[in-house]
Amino acid sequence: MTQPVTLSARDGVGVITVDNPPVNALSPGVPEGIRTALETAERDTSVRAIVLICAGRTFISGADIKELEEAARNPAAGGPDLHPLLTRIEDCAKPVIMAIHGMALGGGLELAMAGHYRVAVADASLGAPEVNLGIIPGAEGTQRLPRLVGVAAAVDMCVSGKPIKAAQALQMGLIDRVITSINAGDLLSGAVAFASEVAGQPVRKTRERNDRLGSASENAAIFAAGRAQAAKIRRNQTAPLFALEALEAATTLPFDQGCKKEREIVRKVLASDQARAMIHMFFAERAVARVPGIPKETATYPIANVGIIGAGTMGGGIAMACANAGISVLLKETEQPALDRGMAAIRKNYDSSVKKGRFSQAVMDQRMALIHPQLTYDGFDKADLIIEAVFESMPLKKQIFGEIDKIAKPDCVLASNTSTLDIDEIAAATSRPQMVIGLHFFSPAHVMRLVEIVRGKHPSNEVVATSLAIAKKLGKVGVVVGNCRGFVGNRMMLPYMREAQFLAEEGSTPEQVDKALTDFGMAMGIFAVDDMGGIDLAYRVKQEYAYLRKPGERVPLVLDKLYEMGRLGQKRGMGWYRYDESRTPIPDPEVHALIEKTANDAGIARRTITPEEIIERCVYIMINEGARILEEGHAQRAADIDVIYCTGYGFPGYRGGPMWYADTVGLKKVYARVHEFHKQYGHLWEPAPLLKKLADEGSSFAVWDAGKEK
Ligand code: NAI
Questions:
Q1: pLDDT at position 68, please?
Q2: Residues 468 and 603 in one domain
Q3: pLDDT tens column, 122-154
Q4: Cβ pair 296, 305 in contact under 8 A
Q5: Are residues 343 and 447 in the same domain?
Q6: For 347-369, what is each residue's pLDDT tens digit?
Q7: Is 286 helix (H, G, I), strand (E, B) or coil?
Q8: Residue 663 belongs to what H/E stretch?
Q9: What does the alpha-carbon distance between residue 155 and residue 595 come to, in Å, rounded to a whole number?
Q10: CB 374 near ligand 1, within 6 Å
Q11: Quick one: which of 217, 364, 272, 337 has its CA closest to 79?
Q12: Could you report the per-residue pLDDT of 468-520, keeping only the tens digit for each?
């Protein structure tokens, strides 16, 4: 194995190079290597200054997250200990210059801040993204960052977790020079030149720089604003609040005591359910790409040209997702007005992004130029991937697949965006079912990260691997799911929606149910979701699934009435709620009266329902369905279901997804409640055998997943 850290010399400057692919994480061996190299360079009388630089595509991009996961399991140990190394760097008698390209994030930034100077290439990013893992900068980052950038900027970086680019970092004082490079290798030259300029000068220790720590009164306002920002952008999350507490310590305590305080907080944070859940999500999002039976080396088809059929809500969104990734798109409709509407919606969307400053007009123009609207299949014979996004109708989808089968080249992947239909039946309309797969995008498709990759009986391994690659290319998370009704996400959503409606019939208002759900952390309440998707859609799905009902099964009663009244949701300004122009849901007494009358007419006893019961009934019914899905093999792992729910259904990431959440509650408890609800409400609550089995064994979904990975 090559050494992860090496030392060389250039123009009297010691150059420490970290080479720990792929992202130069601070894995075991790296900190030790840096220390040895530093001490050697410090002793070497021919060396006047020291540059630390990284090989490969990035500076040190952070801690080794496997080590963090270990630390979250054993928080008393406090996690990887970088403190002695950082002090050693800062105490070095010769100036240490950190040379940054790619990303200096988390532990990487903390290490960089212990240097005496930092230089970076223009497109480098620097940040403290720890909040995304439910933790805080734990290697003195909360103490050094405000000393370099001031308290307000440090608060913003730690609460938002967003990285900043080199120019802004320079302006803020986080780095000392932007190295404008034309050729590769210039960062090293620039850093060595910088080092020669500062060699011989007394070193500047970040920990001794107190001039930007502000006054008590200024800081009080900054921290209050930080807490307000955290409540807004990271609702219910504890990590940003802990980060603020540690930053506050930087402003009130001497450096060493501040570091001690930071360490105490880190132990608390690592022990939190939220950190464990978010670290679980980090690994779960990466694990989805490992699909049993699809080896890593499986060949993929190159995808450069995409044909999309249908320029409605989904077709338009998918076209934008492709254009955003630089992929050229043919967008086909049946009639000019529909095509015009579709293109106008795309233009409006991009226009609004330009107005909000998300990207420039030039970028918008480039993206628009990649989308080619048309009424024919012209050019579809050259497409590498065709995605069908027409109305949800089996005869129509079969007709379309029959048409494209005649046109598409033999190695073209044929995908349907169906949200409910049988992908094998669709594939059977072609002469090449091995090329057919479901790519279930979520609305709005250019924003939502989830794609369910629906694998029926037929697709070849190459088609599955290509689908995973496409999802990645579009910046999305592709999760392979089985071909069952509603696949994974919607299949779990249906009982959840149904249960919410039962709760309303039994005495909760829609807004009480929604409040309990959003307080729990859901991005939106389920009634608000129903209004957004459209009551007509929910009604159609309910009708379609009616044949699956068992005799005497309880059925929600109010939805059909809303449909008959034309209360079709947001688009009509009324559904479960009323809406004004801002689309804020407003509780509607008319709906309350309708629910009450419907319940009374049906003889349903009404009572006050606690938020705890609302959560148990809405979430446990999903978990129970999730357990069935797992048992049937329609999801590969419980963690896949978690990824689906956190990326596509607004389930809070800090609870780790429904299956992880079930583990944190304890499967014995979840099962006991499901069992009680079964006795009380009948067969819709029949416990999934896998849930019962794991509860009886004192096991968990995580253990079940681990067993499957072996
Ligand atoms: P939509 O009604 O907005 O768009 C469908 C479009 O297909 C219409 O513009 C229609 O003119 C066009 N079309 C119909 N026949 C065509 C043909 N032969 N050739 C070309 N274009 C044709 O429907 P939406 O919402 O975009 O749904 C499309 C598909 O995506 C459906 O299968 C739906 O189940 C699925 N889906 C919808 C989601 C949503 O939130 N709306 C989410 C995920 C999947």
A1: 77
A2: no
A3: 999 999 999 999 999 999 999 999 999 999 999
A4: no
A5: yes
A6: 999 999 999 999 999 999 999 99
A7: helix
A8: helix 658-665
A9: 46
A10: no
A11: 272
A12: 999 999 999 999 999 999 999 999 999 999 999 999 999 999 999 999 999 99
Distance of CA 278 to the CA centre of its chain: 10
Write out the E strands in 533-616.
Answer: 578-579, 585-586
Nearest to 586 by CA among 510, 522, 520: 510
Rounded to an integer, what distance in angstroms lies between the CA atom of residue 77 and that of residue 296? 35
Q: Which residue has the tokens 């080092």?
A: 195
User: Tokens 């509607």 appear where?
Assistant: 588
| Lookup: tokens for 570 | 């947001």
CA of 393 to the centre of ligand 1 (A): 9
Asked if residues 140 and 112 have their Cβ atoms less than 8 Å apart, the reply is: no
Residue 309 CB–ligand 1 contact under 6 Å:
yes
Question: Is the backbone peptide bond immediately before 687 cis, with ω within 30 degrees of 0?
Answer: no
Mean pLDDT throughout 288-309?
A: 94
Distance in Å, CA 673 to ligand 1 centroid: 40
Q: Which residue in the block uniquely carries the two structure tokens 């990260």?
A: 449
- 463 in the same domain as 324: yes
E runs forming strands in 65-109: 96-100, 103-105
Rounded to the nearest angstrom, the distance between the alpha carbon of 517 and the centre of ligand 1 is 30
Can you say how many angstroms the Cα of residue 224 is from the centroid of all Cα atoms in its chain? 28
As a whole number, mean pLDDT of residues 52-57 equals 96
Same domain, residue pair 516 and 429: no
Q: Tokens standing for 493?
A: 């959503």
> In which region does residue 540 sit, left (phi positive, over 0), alpha (psi from -120 to 50) or beta (all else)?
alpha
If you average pLDDT over residues 216-241, what whole number do you get?
Answer: 96
Helix (H) or strand (E) holding 97: strand 96-100
Band (pLDDT 50/70/90 cuts) for residue 183 is low
Q: Would you say the CB of residue 443 lies under 6 angstroms from ligand 1?
A: yes
Radius of gyration of the chain from Cα atoms?
Answer: 28
Give how far the C-alpha of residue 120 lies from the chain's centroid of Cα atoms, to the nearest Å: 28
| Cβ pair 292, 482 in contact under 8 A | no
Show the tokens assigned to 457.
Answer: 């009986």
pLDDT of residue 182 exceeding 60, the answer is: no
Cβ-count burial 334-348 (b if 16+ within 10 Å, e if not)? eeeeebeebbebbee
Q: How does the average pLDDT of the chain come out, rounded?
A: 95
User: How far is C-alpha 61 from the geometric centre of its chain's CA atoms?
Assistant: 18
Cα–Cα distance for residue pair 601/631, rounded to 1 Å? 39
Cβ atoms of residues 265 and 247 within 8 Å:
no
* Same domain? 611 vs 541: yes
pLDDT band of 72, cuts 50, 70, 90? confident
- Identify whether 284 is part of a domain: no
Nearest CA residue ID for atom 29, ligand 1: 389
- Domain assignment present for 427: yes
Q: Is residue 276 part of a domain?
A: no
The yes-or-no answer on residue 130 being catalytic is: yes
575 and 692 belong to one structural domain = yes
**C-beta atoms surrounding 581 within 10 Å:** 6
Is 110 one of the annotated active-site residues of the chain?
Answer: yes
At 599-638, the pLDDT tens digits run 999 999 999 999 999 999 999 999 999 999 999 999 999 9
Identify whether the C-beta of residue 66 lies closer than 8 Å to the C-beta of residue 283: no
